[in-house]
Every structure is written in structure tokens, then in C-alpha cells.
């Protein structure tokens, strides 16, 4: 079932984290923080909404990194229920796609909870002070990639954040599969 995150809570401070990456290193928020802003993406390996735009996520990530925006992706899904989203599965995808950003494993789901992540993909765009300025969609794609000439909502928003420190007031939420939460023990 498709879900959408809430609207942007402008100025909300990014919670810190320390998560293992597919590169074998531990990564913290300060490690991925960029001088022009930071983009935290909650994604996974199996979600059709993510798979439909994976190439666009990579394109926008590379373009934003070239401008000084720090980026990481986090997978928080329950790997027991969704083996494709296991840490080993994440390592395989990271290698296959030659990800230009750290791909981090949130096994206990504490980071997803701290960020109030709702779906995959869920994008959190912060300014250089780590204040939330964008919580919107990548573009108008859904389970299928839209036309190649779609407006690059995430890229345009983060470009604005990088240059002004502020995100656009009008934002359209992302849509995707819900985070696959572990059963309460």
C-alpha cells in the first residue's frame, strides 16, 4: 500500500546517527554532512517506487554532490521479513550500482524512528546548519518512472537550499512503500 510522509517541518534539526555502511565503515551524520547541505534518503532494495527511479536518484545524487551537498541512503526495513533488504543484499546493490554515496544499514530501525521516516523513498533535505528544508518527492514518478523530462523536484529544491539555506514553501510529498517495521517483541 502506498503511503506519503507528512509535510516539511521547516527548521527541524537532523538527529545524529552512527550506522554501518556497505563500504565496511561506520558513518555518522557529521561524516555525510556537506558544506552546502545534506540529503538523507530512506530507500530499500525491493520497493517498486525506488526501483522505478533508481537511475534518477543516482543522477541527482551525483549532481548534488558536485555542488557540495552531502548524501547518504539508509535502509531500515525488517530484513527477516524482506531478505532482499538484508545487509548482504544492500552490499550487492551498492556494488552493482557503484553508489556514489554511503548506503547505511539501520538494523534496529532507531534512525528511521528518529527521523519519522514513513516510506521508501523518503527524502530529508537539510541546509548547511542541518535544519530540515525539504521533505518532498524526487519527481512526479510513482511505481513507474515518468517521462524523462519531468521536473526534478528534489534536485531543484536542494539547489535552492544550497544557494539560499531555505527550501521551497510548496512541496509535494514523496510516495512509496511503507517502511517494513519489525514486529514488536
Give the CA-CA distance, first to last residue.
24 Å
Class from helix and strand fractions: alpha+beta
Largest sheet: 5 strands, mixed
Our estimate of the beta-strand percent is 15-25%
Radius of gyration: 15 Å
Adjacency order of strands in the biggest sheet: 6-5-4-8-9
Shape: globular
SSE order, as H and E?
Answer: EEEHEHEHEHEEEHE
Number of strands: 10
Describe the structure concisely for a colleague.
28% of the residues lie in helices and 20% in strands. The protein is built from 5 helices and 10 strands; from the N terminus they run βββαβαβαβαβββαβ. Helix 2 (48-66) packs parallel to helix 5.
Description:
This protein is of the alpha+beta class and 185 residues long. It has five helices and ten strands. The chain has helices at residues 29-32, 48-66, 87-97, 110-115, 153-164, and strands spanning 2-3, 18-20, 26-28, 37-42, 69-75, 103-105, 119-120, 122-126, 132-134, 176-178. The strands form three sheets. A five-stranded mixed sheet has the order 6-5-4-8-9. It has a three-stranded antiparallel sheet with strand order 1-10-7, covered by helices on one side. It has a two-stranded antiparallel sheet with strand order 2-3. Strand 2 (18-20) and strand 3 (26-28) form a beta hairpin. The mean pLDDT is 96.
